[in-house]
């Protein structure tokens, strides 16, 4: 993929912004979060939850655990990373994911992580990996199976999921087989084109930081099922990132499942978490429930 920069180097400044800043492509992006407000409120009010558990000293190194309902024995675990271009959003807006998974017997972990510009992308990624490590080491205290963890993420959260796949977990003293699957939605996998957008005023990316976190060039370490999903009406350069990352995994002997879902944009595709029959939830439930262990 050494020729990847040519994919965007000929774009005008305005076209580059459109292709690589989803808020410019879909200026009514806030409407989609508003549409999820009611199921999100219901989940936060009705589910048993352990909120704001610290997994480090930084004030954003906190996560919420929603224990599975109706499970005998250790429950499979699903970890979610929100989007926001590494510089926005909060776990409190994504409780609705637990609202769908918890009644199906899945312990759900909704993660906050460090954000730019207060942190660099190095800190963002390190905090996300620390959240996954905390989940593996501690989720049994909440009824979860530490060796049956799946994850999903949207946009920048998909990049963080890909960082999990590219991390040497054995160096942390952990068998990487604890990750049973990943669903990566509308992701950005090479941070370099973000340098040319207005968002970089907050990200403060430079070429060195972007290269360190380019998961299109770092070999995957975890070998687990991966589903890569994008919206059909996202800008083509954004969709193409999903195909490039799928190609990267394939070159390393993996067999990723890749979907472009017609009619969905970068923001309303998150609503697929509310529909168990959607491509997103079929992938999440298929991976997660496949990891369920029988009761002892």
From TrEMBL:
Keywords: Hydrolase
Location of the Alpha/beta hydrolase fold-3 domain: 79-212
Matching InterPro entries: AB_hydrolase_3, AB_hydrolase_fold, Carboxylesterase_B_AS, GDXG_lipolytic_enzyme
Keyword Hydrolase recorded: yes
UniProt superkingdom: Bacteria
Keyword Hydrolase (UniProt): yes
GO molecular function, one term: hydrolase activity
Identification of the protein by name: Arylformamidase
Organism: Chelatococcus asaccharovorans
Lineage of the organism: Bacteria, Pseudomonadati, Pseudomonadota, Alphaproteobacteria, Hyphomicrobiales
């Amino acid at each position: 993929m050494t020729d990847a920069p040519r994919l965007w180097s000929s774009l005008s400044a305005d076209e580059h912004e459109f292709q690589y800043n989803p808020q410019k492509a879909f200026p009514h992006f806030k409407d989609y979060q508003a549409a999820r407000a009611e199921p999100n409120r219901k989940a936060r009010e009705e589910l048993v939850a352990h909120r704001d558990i610290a997994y480090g000293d930084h004030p954003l190194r906190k996560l919420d655990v929603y224990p599975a309902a109706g499970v005998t024995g250790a429950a499979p675990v699903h970890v979610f990373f929100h989007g926001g271009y590494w510089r926005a959003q909060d776990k409190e807006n994504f409780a609705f994911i637990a609202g769908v998974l918890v009644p199906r017997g899945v312990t759900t972990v909704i993660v906050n992580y460090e954000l730019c510009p207060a942190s660099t992308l190095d800190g963002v990624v390190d905090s996300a990996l620390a959240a996954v490590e905390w989940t593996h080491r501690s989720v049994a205290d909440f009824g979860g199976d530490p060796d049956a963890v799946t994850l999903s993420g949207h946009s920048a959260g998909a990049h963080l999921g890909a960082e999990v796949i590219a991390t040497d977990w054995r160096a942390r003293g952990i068998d990487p087989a604890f990750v049973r699957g990943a669903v990566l939605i509308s992701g950005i996998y090479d941070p370099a084109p973000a340098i040319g957008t207005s968002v970089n005023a907050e990200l403060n990316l430079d070429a060195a930081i972007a290269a360190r976190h380019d998961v299109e060039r770092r070999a995957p370490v975890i070998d687990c099922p991966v589903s890569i999903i994008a919206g059909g009406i996202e800008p083509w350069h954004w969709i193409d990132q999903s195909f490039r990352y799928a190609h990267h995994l394939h070159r390393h002997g993996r067999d990723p499942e890749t979907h472009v879902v017609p009619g969905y944009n970068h923001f309303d595709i998150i609503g697929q978490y509310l529909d168990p029959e959607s491509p997103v939830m079929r992938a999440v439930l298929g991976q997660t429930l496949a990891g369920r262990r029988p009761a002892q």
